[in-house]
Structures are given as structure tokens and as C-alpha cells.
What does this fold into?
Amino acid sequence: MSRKSMREEDILKLYNKGLSDEEISKSLGISIWTVRYWRRKYGYKPNPHHKKCPICERYFRDFGKKKYCSECREELRKIRGLRFQIIKKIRYHLYYLLDNSPEVFWRVIKEMEEEEGPEFVKLITKGMNLKSLSKTN
Ligand SMILES: [Zn+2]
It folds into this structure.
């Protein structure tokens, strides 16, 4: 058996296991161009990369730059949506306070700042027009 056909066999074996071009090239210590050459010779499509999800630590395969597995991405989407809803709700209550009892509003803001930090207050009040109001406070 010639050297070339052994390499070809190794590449195809790993390809059939589901490894991506990059993974095959790394595991055999050959260039990615060699892997691509042989894969294309057989008309095979590239396998997606094998990645470890940093949240659930499960392995998943993906062609793109996705960092998390599909299940965790779905969870993150839900959490982001929920976070946005919570912030909206808090702002709604703050506006109510601002309109009906500004002194309580500013006390709440001050307490929030002390307990959660100025970054939190900045996030919660982002988009609220407070600059002109704070002068009158
Ligand atoms: Zn995950």
C-alpha cells in the first residue's frame, strides 16, 4: 500500500466518523488543503466542527461561529427576553413613582444605587429622561 492511499484512507475514516476538515488535519498532522483535496475528490460535503458548549459542557456540531449548543442558545434567548421584560416593568413602576411621588422616586433611586451600584441604576433608568428632573431635585 502506497503512502498516499494510506493517508487517503485515514482521512476518509475520520471523515466518516463525522470530523471536520480542521479536526482531520489536526489529528493526522497534515494540512487542511490535503484533507479538502481528498474530501472533494469523493464529492463529500464538509462535516461541521465539533464544539464543547461552555454552559452545559455537551459536545455539539456547528458550521458557524456559534458558541453555545442549540438548547443553551434557546435558554439564553428566553433569559434575555425575560430580563428585558423585567427592566421594562421596573421602568414602568419608576415612571409611576416619578409622576405621582417624585420624592419617593428619588429615594428608591438612591437606595438602588447604594444596594445594587450605579451601573444597575444606569441600566434601569436608561432611556428615562431624568437629567432635567434631577436638577430640580
Ligand atoms: Zn449547551
Observations:
- The radius of gyration is 28 Å.
- The chain has two domains: 3-68, 71-136.
